[in-house]
Amino acid sequence: MSIQTLKQAVRNIPDFPIAGIQFKDITTLFQSPEHLQELSDVLYEAYKNKGITKVVGIESRGFFMGPALALRLNAGFIPIRKPGKLPHITIEESYEKEYGVDTIQIHEDSLSPDDVVLIHDDLLATGGTMIAAYNLVKKLGVKKIYINFLIELEELNGRQYFPKDVEVDSVLKFDI
Ligand code: AMP
Hints:
There is one protein chain. The protein has helices at residues 3-8, 27-30, 33-47, 62-73, 128-139, and strands spanning 11-14, 22-25, 54-58, 76-80, 90-96, 101-107, 116-124, 144-153, 168-174. It is α/β, with parallel strands linked by helices. It starts with a helix and ends with a strand. The chain has a single domain (51-174), classed as Rossmann fold. The protein has five helices and nine strands, in the order H-E-E-H-H-E-H-E-E-E-E-H-E-E. Helix 5 links the parallel strand 7 and strand 8 (144-153). Helix 3 crosses helix 4 (62-73). It binds adenosine monophosphate.
């Protein structure tokens, strides 16, 4: 199966949730077992030789493929969540959204200096969410960080905000 076939399975919803946004609906990609298997294979092939020990997924759409990829990589899964959801001691990071400020949290004891981490989310738009997640993981002092998205909106050039020495990768690239 080609990457083009996977791209075609993503449904574009114009003007959702607000006017001007071309929303990439991945539920149509996930509903086919063949597409799901191919997506899982592509992700596994990209990271199987990187020595990943933990996959960190961002709430909530990083929770779809994150744990599935962790299982295949024989790695653990760590959630980054919205405030008030994680029950133990957390550290947090805030970032600007189009309207207002958002905060994300991670358990302070979830990662260790030996960990090689893959941070995963569904989509790279402006990059604000992932930069905040990257800063959170960095604060916990891990050995190496990789970043992965299912979808990248290339026109927004969100990847420009990541440090040059960090490998940022996406499976499906869209213009908008
Ligand atoms: P950003 O922080 O701007 O990179 O936005 C990324 C987050 O917002 C991701 O977790 C996505 O789930 C969501 N998002 C932003 N733009 C879109 C879009 N066009 N389609 C679907 N989800 C989006």
